Every structure is written in C-alpha cells, then in structure tokens.
Amino acid sequence: MDPRPRRTQPKEIHVKSVAATALAVIVAAGSISAQETQTAGMAWSLKAGDQFSTKVTIDIELGMELPGLPMGGGDQGFHVEYQLDHKVGESVDGVAKIDATIGPVTAKISMPMMGEMGYSSAEDDEQNPLRGVRHLVGKTFAYSIDKSGKVLSVSGGDALVEEAAQAAAADGGGDNGGGMMMIDPKALAGAAMMLFRDETLQTSIGVHTHVLPGAAGGASWSLDREESIATVGTIKFKAACASEDGAKITLSGNEISFEQPAPMPGEEANPMAAMQRKLMEGLEVTRTAVTGTATYDKALGRVTSSESVREIDQEGQLPEELKQMIQMQGGQVQDDMVLKRSSKLTVKVEEVAGDDRRRF
Fold first, then answer.
1. Is pLDDT above 80 for 186?
2. I need a labelling partner for 121 at 20 to 30 A (CA). Which of 81, 134, 144, 243 fits?
C-alpha cells in the first residue's frame, strides 16, 4: 500500500454548477432589468392642447333569485354607450386638467316581465321613454388626473344631469312606458342619467385611467382603488397590476370590501324603494371579483383601451314584510327562504378617431 496521502481532484461538475448558477443569475438580472426598462415611465403624460375621443360602454347586470314569488326574481340590465371628446386644458406638475364633452348616447334598459327598450340620440324617437338622455349630448364636465391616472376631481356632472333632467321633464310622449307597467317613463331616462353624476363619472373614468404605476418600477405594482357603482354600492380594493412589455396591462383585485349604496334623492318618499333598501341591507356578500385589462401607448402618453369587470354576489334571509308581500301575490313562503342577488359591472373604453367617431 502506498503510504503517501492521495490528492483529491476537484469535481468538474461542481465548477460547471457554479458557472451555470452564475449565468442564471446574470440572465435573471438581465430579464428583470429589461422588464423594468420596458415598464419604466408608464405614466399619463398629457400636454396642454391634447385632444382625443373615447367610446365608453357601461353594462350593469343585476340578477335576483327570489323563491316563492310567482313572477320570480328576474334579471335587470342597464346598457349605456356614449362618446367623450377630451381636451387637455393644462398639465402642471404631473396633473392634467381635462374638459370632456358628451357625444352621441345610446341607452337600453331591460326589466323582468316588462321587456326591453332602447334609444339612440342619433335616431331620435319622440315617443321613446328614454328620449330624455338626448339632453346630455353636447354638455361638458371637467376632471383631473395624476401620472398614475388616479382621478383627483370631477366637476360639472351633477349640474349637467340636473339640467338634462329638467329638459327631459318638459318632453312629451313616451307616456306608456314602452309596455312597462307601473314604471314612470321619465324615471327610466333618469336612471341612465345617473351614470353621469360626478361620483359615478369618477368611477367610470378611473377604471380606465387609474392603472399605471406613474413612475419607474418593475413588472408589477399595486394601487388603492375605491369605486362607486350606480344602484349597486361602493367597492374598495387593492388593484394588483402587471405588465411584461410596458403596453399590455392586467389587473386583479385583492382585499375587496363592499358598502351598500347611499340613499337616492326622494327615496324615503317611495315605499318600494324603501323596501328594496331594507332588503339589500340584510344581504351578506358571498363572492367578489375584480378583473381588468388595459393597453398603454407610451408615444401618446395615455391608456388607449381597457375593459374592467366587477362582480358581487350576495344572499340573505327575507324580511317579514317581503314574505307578506309574496303571500299576498299567491306565493309560497318558508321560514328559511333565502334571497340571492348578483351584480356585474362591465366598463369598456376605447379611443375612436376618423370615421369611427360619432358613428356607433
């Protein structure tokens, strides 16, 4: 036996492993750096005098399962489509102040057991109960946004809705409610107009604009959001946003909370509205979902298209007053009857130009 100590040769695989690990770190770092470069500067960068137009489509779907009621719960739908012509008045310290003028408006409303009706301001119908929405066309409101697209203020919406509502009240025709029994036809146009109040405009604009980090960052970022959904309520959440190429953005909501809507003007004098509010206050939220996509154009310095979806499911026991109403209508009542309600808001925004403007 050779008494001399044996020398151990270094393992080549170990050297290769270290080299491979180092290479992987370099590649990963390069990938992260590339993503940060692509997403850096994703901010609204509007200039005074900039002008652009958007087509806004809002769909509110309300579903209700009401066991025992002869006519059932049924679904309600509100669809409003309109054009906004935006003009930037000034842009100082990252805050842009913008005037938005309402273009052509299309409105559709559907209610259970009562049918569907629609109206377009481009094709006026003097007998249409929704005709009042045409008084919105040509009216202007103002809003301001920061670099991330957060809506800092909205003004003029409440005033233009009041002005349009007064003009609609003077309209003739449409007194049959399109076959919708016990429905005030003027109230139908009023329901569509509510989407143009300051608080609701802040949401419909913000779901489109407030999706950017507003500063240099990585491939993901978080935004605090609060949105008021007409006839549904207010949701608060953290928006988790991501983009790998600095153009296409995805969004999902975390830590979502929900609050019932504030009372509408004159609601206390309406027994049915009061009953509905009491019913909604007794419901618990069982599911929420917030999703969205957007496209950012760095050359233009703005988001050019987006689609946002908000979903809320609720359920709860029926109040005694409603049980009595069901019995009066010939329905069957049980002690453990559960009401289920679903709400879905979809907002789509896309820039339009040339022949596409004022033609939808």
1. no
2. 144
Nearest Cα neighbor of 159 from 136, 128, 126 is 136
The pLDDT of residue 43 is above 90: yes
Give me Rg for the CA atoms of the chain. Answer: 27
Angle 136-139-140 from CA coordinates, rounded to 5°:
135
CATH of domain 42-356: 2.30.230
> How large is the average pLDDT for residues 124-144?
90
Token output for 356: 């596409």
Rounded Cα distance between 33 and 40, Å, is 10
Burial 250-262 (b: 16+ CB within 10 A, else e): ebebeebebeeee
Q: How confident is the model at residue 211, as a pLDDT?
A: 95
Assign 3-class secondary structure to the chain.
CCCCCCCCCCCHHHHHHHHHHHHHHHHHHHHHHHHHHHHCCCCCCCCCCCEEEEEEEEEEEEEEECCCCCCCCEEEEEEEEEEEEEEEEEEECCEEEEEEEEEEEEEEEEECCCEEEEEECCCCCCCCHHHHHHHHCCCEEEEEECCCCCEEEEECHHHHHHHHHHHHHCCCCCCCHHHCCCCCHHHHHHHHHHHHCHHHHHHHHHHHHCCCCCCCCCCEEEEEEEEEECCCEEEEEEEEEECCCCCEEEEEEEEEEEECCCCCCCHHHCHHHHHHHHHHHCCEEEEEEEEEEEEEECCCCEEEEEEEEEEEEEEEECCHHHHHHHHHCCCCCCCCCEEEEEEEEEEEEEEECHHHCCCC
The answer to whether 245 touches 252, Cβ cutoff 8 Å, is no
Provide mean pLDDT across the span 198-218.
88
More confident residue, 113 or 211: 211
**Domain boundaries, given as residue ranges, for the chain:** 42-356
What's the mean pLDDT in 40-47?
86
**C-alpha angle 346/347/350, rounded to 5°?**
140
Q: What is the distance between the alpha carbons of residues 271 and 251, in angstroms, rounded to a whole number?
A: 40
pLDDT at residue 90, as a whole number: 94
